[in-house]
Amino acid sequence: MNTLQLLLEQYKKGWSLEREFYTSQEVFEQEMTYIWKQHWLFAGFSCEIPESGDYLTYMVLDQSVIIIRDDDGQIYAHHNSCRHRGSAICLEERGHEDKLKCPYHSWVYDKNGSLRSARLMPDDLDKSQLGLHPVHVAMIEGAIFISLADKPPDFSQEIAALSPYLRPYQLDNAKVAYRDRYELEANWKLIGENFRECYHCGPVHIEYCSVVVGANLVEDREAVVAESKVLWQQQGLAVDTIENTGDASHYATRYPLRPGMESYTLDGKPAALPMGQYKQYDNGVVGLINYPNFWMDGVSDYIWCMRITPIDALRAVVDLTWLVDGKAVEGVDYDIERLTEFWKITGEQDWHLCENNQKGIRSVRYEPGPMAPSEEDVVNFHTWYLNRMRKGVMKNQ
């Protein structure tokens, strides 16, 4: 029995994971095989590449993917590797190219990945067999997901569940107001765990709890939730919480801000124009997740999105994006500092918690501890993760 199999057998539901799940490079490499190179990964938003030829690249460990919009508006994804001798083609994280030209020997590809020209090669070269290797793409109302798997898992449930929550934002017509990036000394799962519970919110997130009713776990928010749901349903908004239990990778919910609060800001007042179809500010908070790397919180006037990408067993990158309505004008309809300060404060509080968590887990005396009832969603996250790892082990036996 190998290390991973032993760890999987030792897991005790309702308790934190064994130390090696957060520190072992061997376990990490198996995660890359069984999860990150098999599952659907959030890559970005369609509004980040609005014009034909606009592209972004997403690096997942040693795998670089080009995501580009073609002349018909369709979005394609390709492995960032020339079919000649393998050079990376797009060298920047974001940019614009009318055609994809390899910087090494100038092979040229159309946006859909087909080989257009291969200079100084024989006339009988079969270009139809030498297009860029495709990467699977799935769209959820303007959110772009990719899969590196040859045969990715079915994604229809995720699309059906998350679409009603994303549709009002009209993400195709949104725009990026701000981006930020943090490299954390923390295993990627610790970041995921942190965002699946509010056991820590009362003591740590004073700003967050001042805006979100019940976040401190000591207030009864049921009456506010029930009243809000009636109003949201009258507006035709999605309100049913979709739990991620069992094998489900996705989660969706809409929950209320405190009465009188209209946005995720320090004073609760709006930071920008209402987005997309929203015409007012009393639509609560949309919280969306798709494991392993997509977390999103959206209020009526802006979206804050987190993309997690592992570096190794002990480190991960967190990419943050703030979206606003495409018609909003910076300096007129929104101010960058005001738009971002709430989540910069809250996020950085969480980054410190995650890094402190990693430091403590590295202790030789660390051992799994019992979860609180309010950490049920962390247990659900563990269930999803461990199921993926078990299936990977079984498949490769």
TrEMBL record:
GO terms for molecular function: dioxygenase activity. Residues 40-146 form the Rieske domain. Its cofactor is Fe cation. Transmembrane segments: none annotated. It comes from the Bacteria. The keyword RNA-binding does not apply. This is Aromatic ring-hydroxylating dioxygenase subunit alpha. PANTHER family: CHOLINE MONOOXYGENASE, CHLOROPLASTIC. It holds the Pfam family Rieske. The keyword Iron applies. Keywords: 2Fe-2S, Dioxygenase, Iron, Iron-sulfur, Metal-binding, Oxidoreductase.
